[in-house]
Amino acid sequence: MRNIQKTIVLITGASYGIGAATARAFGRRGAHVLLLARTQSALEDVARDIRASGGAASVYPVDLTDARAVEEVAQQVLAAFGPPDILLSNAGAGRWLFIDETTPDEAVAMMAMPYFAAFSITRAFLPSMRARGRGHLAYVNSPASLVAWPGAAAYTAARWALRGFVEALRAELHGTRLRVTTIIPGLVATTYFEHNPGVLERVPGLARRLLPVLTADQAAAAIVRGIEHGRREIVLPGMLRLLYAAYAIAPGLVQYLTILTGARHDRRP
């Protein structure tokens, strides 16, 4: 099991929700947490919490969809701390919309984060992590990266792009001492749902009936525990793991039930 104490942990999307909760959890374990997101004031609040609990935190406000800005921040981090021991790409955005409800600009924005944000932060730190010969890269994705459901077309495409990127990264790092972890949380009570009204109504009934809603702290605890144990995949809660197992055995049935209990498009002219 990995010892988190005194490690450097970099987290994107660290200002709210799962990212902030996971940053606090790592801080309590004795890591020095590097917090990246767009809003400096929110990052400072998280850093204050970490320091109050005896941990260490540094704040790096950055637009993670701006590849040049990400590279500049990476150079600052490398100069101050060297390559992170753990890089957690958590930043994500995007509304659940049917295709004809989604503007082209919004589709591009959904691909920019999480996919291009994950690509840019990985590309910025991967050479130094490889040169050092160790490290752990982890990526927060969505159940939409495996099973598509109605009413979230561009969101699903972005999540599949992230899934493909992580699998390609894992293939490229085969035989090295760098670990790669995929994190798939189910329903987590965060401000995401407040900022995206109507999303909960588009969660397929299959998931609403079977999956308990987790708190951000519960998700964070599972993420930290999974990274400590070097897991290849962290899927939570347990019922979602069962659904994944069912999908592996009978993908057509699970896909059919997901569509059957999913959102219905208004087809009126």
What does this structure look like?
The chain has 10 helices and 9 strands. It is of the alpha/beta class and 269 residues long. The protein has a single domain, classed as NAD(P)-binding Rossmann-like Domain (Rossmann fold, 3-Layer(aba) Sandwich), CATH 3.40.50. The strands form 2 sheets. Strands 3-2-1-4-5-6-9 form a 7-stranded parallel sheet, with helices on both faces. Helix 1 (17-28) links the parallel strand 1 and strand 2 (32-37). Helix 3 (67-81) packs parallel to helix 4 (104-132).
Give unreliable regions as ranges. Answer: none
Query: How many E strands?
Result: 9
Rounded to the nearest angstrom, the distance between the terminal CA atoms is: 58 Å
- Residue fraction in strands: 15-25%
CATH class category name: Alpha Beta
CATH superfamily: NAD(P)-binding Rossmann-like Domain
Order of helices and strands, N to C? EHEHEHEHEHEEHHEHEHH
Q: Provide the spatial order of strands within the biggest beta sheet.
A: 3-2-1-4-5-6-9
- Mean pLDDT score: 92
The secondary structure category is alpha/beta
Percent range of helical residues: 40-55%
Tally of separate helices: 10
**Major beta-sheet overview:** 7 strands, parallel
Q: Globular, elongated, flat, extended or rod-shaped: what is the shape?
A: globular
